[in-house]
Specification:
Strand order of the largest sheet: 2-3-1-4
Strand content: 15-25%
Number of strands: 4
Shape: globular
Low-confidence stretches: none
Number of helices: 5
Radius of gyration: 16 Å
Largest sheet: 4 strands, antiparallel
Length: 118
């Protein structure tokens, strides 16, 4: 089992990503989040790496969304990541999002954890 994390700066793409995960048979939870880049920009730190993110991050609060999806198998995980990469054009677009995966060692309270729906 895997936990897919996506920090999404282009919030207008959230619904499409959630629909994609639903079609793959997995759910997700979203959280409002603020990254260090936005905090540094708010403090007027003038770093080149943060300058390109300024337009993306200067919209209203919340600054981005963090999506967490527990995915049972590696095949579905790979497909989900590929589809999200394509939706956000992650390979060609700087600042649209950041994705990573962590293993889930134990899980409780969810159908994704192998528990039955009531």
């Amino acid at each position: 089992m895997y936990a897919l994390f996506l920090v999404l700066n282009h919030k207008e793409k959230l619904d499409v990503i959630l629909e994609t995960l639903y079609e793959l048979g997995t759910g997700a939870t979203t959280l409002d989040s603020v990254g260090m880049g936005k905090l540094l920009l708010d403090r007027n730190v003038n770093e080149t790496i943060f300058a390109s993110l300024k337009n993306v991050l200067n919209e209203g609060k919340p600054y981005n969304k963090t999506l967490i999806s527990v995915i049972n198998d590696e095949g579905t995980l790979d497909l989900a990541m590929k589809m999200i990469e394509d939706i956000l054009d992650l390979k060609n677009t700087v600042g649209s999002g950041f994705m990573f995966v962590l293993p889930v060692i134990k899980c409780s309270g969810s159908v994704q954890c192998g528990e039955r729906e009531s």
